[in-house]
Amino acid sequence: MLRFRDVGETIYSFGDEFLIRCPRCQRRASVIPWGESRSTLFGAHRAVCAHCGYVRDWKSDHITVGGPADWYFHYPLWLETPCCGQTLWAYNEKHLTFLENYVMANLRERLPNRNKSLASRLPGWMQDAKNREEVLKGIARLRKKLQ
Prior knowledge:
This protein has a domain at 3-12 and 80-145. The protein is an alpha+beta fold. 23% of the residues lie in helices and 23% in strands. The chain has 4 helices and 8 strands; from the N terminus they run βββββββαβααα. The protein is globular and about 45 Å long.
């Protein structure tokens, strides 16, 4: 029996890097913190593509957290695939691993009063045992995109 223990990770736990589709060449690129403010949510961020050399800097005080886009430039994510009539997405490999561990688990334990945790906010179709196999296939497709 596989067990998942919700330790209270929030969506912010996975916002340190976003794998995006480059707006110029459509290949994998990243949005990462840069400069002196590498650890702050509202610090400077940079979109970079190693394939075509695309670079764009973000400096603002407004972000949009959540959903299948990076929080800064709102570029579409690299890790997206159709699944169960929805879109399965992840910000980065760490986020994808979290989703995989959650979906694979036969026993899911939540901490009491942790309504803000990511595990408590996952959509019903992803939590439903009848969709487990299809969601895991979707996660496998996303893992291939990381190679």
